[in-house]
C-alpha cells in the first residue's frame, strides 16, 4: 500500500512522511523540483498530473495527498483562479459523477492552471471504486477553501469523516505566518485539525498542562541573535552581551566585507533621551557605514525608547512588504519570478528620538538555505537549480513541520518536535 502525493513539489509532504517513517510516490512536473526530490532520495514520477492515468494506483493506495499549484489563486499573482472558480466547481462535480468535462471547461478558463485544483477529484473518484484511499490530506491558499468544502461534501457522501478550515503554520512551530486552506478526511477515524503547539503570545502552565509556546521568530530560526534588542548587522565580534554571532559563519556572503562597517553605540543627549552616536575609531568608521555595538551591560543599558530593528521582506519595488520586528515570524514567503529581488531590509524605529537618526543598514539578501529554514526544511536540504528555481520551489512548498502535524494522526505516529529542529 502506498501514499500518493499529487503536485509533490520539492518534497514538503514527502519529507514529513519520511520523518514519520513512511515513503510516498510523488507526481511532479517541474524539472528542478524533481531533481531536488531525487537528491533527497524521494520516489518521483515526473509527469503532468492532469494527463497521468489513475489505473496504476487503484487497489494499492492507502493515503492520498494533493497540493495543487497555487499561482492561479494566490494574492501574489493575478488571481484568475477566482474568476475561474465556477468552472472548477463544475469540473469537480462532473468528475465526482464520473463525467470528464475538463477539456471543454479548460477552453473557458482564464488561467490554464485553475482547473488543476479539480484534478484530485479525478483520482479520488477512481480510487473510491475500490474503497480507497483510507485518508486524504489537501492544502492550498485560503481562497480555495470553498472548493475544499465542495470536496468535503462529496467525500462525506462516500463515507469519509471530513474537516476543512484555514490553519496558520506559525501555530505549529513554523517560523512563518503562512495561512493555508486544509482538507483532512478519513474512513477510519474522526477527521480533526491537530492541536496548535504555539501561539502569538506564550501561554502559562495550567492545571491542564503546559501552555503553548510563543511563535518561533524569524530571527530565532535563522540564528540571528537576541530578538528584543538591537543586534549587529554582520558577523563582527559576537551578539549582544558577547553571545554567539547573530549571523552564522558563511551565511551572509552576499554582504560586503565586514571591515567596511562602522559602529553605533547608545548615549544620552542633554535632555536624557537616548540617541545614537558614531564611533569615530577604527577603519570601519572612516567608510561611513554603521553597525550596532552592544554595551558591556546589555541587560540594563537599553531602554524602551531605544530604537528597535525590524526586517522587511521586499520583492522588486513592492511597497506593501511585510514588516515585522525580529521577535516575530516571517511573513508568507512569496518567491518565484521575483526571487532575485527578495531582500531583508533592516529598519530602525526612532519614536520620540531627537537629533541625528540612525542610518538604515545595507539590505541583506536572504539565502536559499535560510528561506528553506523559514519553511521548516532542514538547513542541509539538497535544493537543486539556480537561485530563482530554488526560491520558486521553496515558496510553493508545504512546510514539512506543518505537514507532519497534519499526517501523524492518520499514520498513528507520534510527532517528535526534535525531528524538525530549526537549527540554522
TrEMBL record:
* Keyword list, A-Z: Methyltransferase, Restriction system, S-adenosyl-L-methionine, Transferase
Enzyme Commission numbers on file: 2.1.1.37
Q: Which family does it belong to?
A: Belongs to the class I-like SAM-binding methyltransferase superfamily. C5-methyltransferase family.
State any single GO MF term: DNA binding
Q: Where is this region: Disordered?
A: 235-303
Question: Looking at the keywords, is Transport present?
Answer: no
Check the record and name the SUPFAM superfamilies matching this protein. Answer: S-adenosyl-L-methionine-dependent methyltransferases
Q: Which domain of life is it from?
A: Bacteria
The record, for InterPro entries, names: C5-Methyltransferase, C5_MeTfrase, SAM-dependent_MTases_sf
Does the keyword Iron belong to this entry?
Answer: no
Organism whose genome encodes this protein:
Streptomyces yokosukanensis
One of the protein's GO biological processes: DNA restriction-modification system
| Enzyme active site | 70
Q: What is this protein called?
A: DNA (cytosine-5-)-methyltransferase
Amino acid at each position: 500500500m502506498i501514499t500518493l502525493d499529487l503536485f509533490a513539489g520539492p518534497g514538503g509532504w514527502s519529507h514529513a512522511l519520511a520523518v514519520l517513517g513512511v515513503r510516498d510516490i510523488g507526481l511532479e512536473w517541474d524539472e528542478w523540483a524533481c531533481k531536488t526530490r531525487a537528491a533527497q532520495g524521494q520516489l518521483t514520477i515526473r509527469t503532468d498530473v492532469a494527463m497521468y492515468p489513475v489505473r496504476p494506483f487503484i487497489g494499492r493506495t492507502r493515503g492520498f495527498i494533493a497540493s495543487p499549484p497555487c499561482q492561479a489563486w494566490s494574492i501574489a499573482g493575478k488571481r484568475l483562479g477566482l474568476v475561474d472558480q465556477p468552472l472548477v466547481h463544475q469540473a469537480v462535480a462532473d468528475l465526482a459523477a464520473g463525467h470528464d468535462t475538463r477539456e471543454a471547461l479548460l477552453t473557458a478558463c482564464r488561467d490554464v492552471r485553475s482547473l488543476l485544483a479539480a484534478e484530485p477529484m479525478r483520482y479520488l473518484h477512481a480510487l473510491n471504486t475500490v474503497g480507497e484511499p483510507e485518508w486524504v490530506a489537501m492544502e492550498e491558499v485560503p481562497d480555495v477553501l470553498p472548493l475544499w468544502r465542495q470536496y468535503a461534501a462529496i467525500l462525506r457522501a462516500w463515507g469519509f469523516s471530513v474537516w476543512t478550515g484555514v490553519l496558520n503554520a506559525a501555530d505549529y512551530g513554523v517560523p512563518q505566518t503562512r495561512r493555508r486552506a486544509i482538507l483532512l478526511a478519513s474512513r477510519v477515524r474522526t477527521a480533526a485539525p491537530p492541536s496548535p503547539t504555539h501561539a502569538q503570545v506564550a501561554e502559562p502552565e495550567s492545571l491542564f498542562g503546559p501552555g503553548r509556546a510563543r511563535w518561533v521568530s524569524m530571527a530565532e530560526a535563522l540564528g540571528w541573535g537576541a530578538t528584543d534588542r538591537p543586534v549587529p548587522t554582520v558577523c563582527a565580534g559576537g551578539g549582544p552581551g558577547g553571545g554567539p554571532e547573530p549571523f552564522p559563519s558563511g551565511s551572509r556572503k552576499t554582504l560586503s566585507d565586514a571591515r567596511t562597517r562602522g559602529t553605533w553605540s547608545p548615549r544620552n543627549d542633554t535632555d536624557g533621551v537616548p540617541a545614537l552616536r558614531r564611533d569615530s575609531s577604527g577603519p570601519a568608521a572612516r567608510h561611513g557605514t554603521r553597525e550596532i555595538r552592544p554595551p558591556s551591560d546589555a541587560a540594563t543599558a537599553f531602554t524602551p525608547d531605544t530604537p528597535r530593528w525590524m526586517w522587511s521582506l521586499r520583492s522588486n519595488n513592492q511597497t506593501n512588504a511585510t514588516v515585522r520586528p525580529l521577535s516575530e515570524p516571517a511573513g508568507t514567503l512569496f518567491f518565484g519570478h521575483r526571487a532575485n529581488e527578495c531582500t531583508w531590509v533592516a529598519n530602525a524605529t526612532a519614536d520620540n528620538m531627537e537629533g541625528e537618526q540612525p542610518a538604515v543598514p545595507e539590505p541583506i539578501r536572504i539565502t536559499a538555505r535560510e528561506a528553506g529554514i523559514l519553511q521548516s526544511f532542514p538547513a542541509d536540504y539538497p535544493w537543486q537549480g539556480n537561485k530563482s528555481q530554488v526560491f520558486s520551489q521553496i515558496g510553493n512548498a508545504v512546510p514539512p513541520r506543518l505537514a507532519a502535524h497534519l499526517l501523524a494522526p492518520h499514520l498513528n505516529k507520534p510527532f517528535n518536535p526534535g525531528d524538525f529542529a530549526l537549527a540554522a
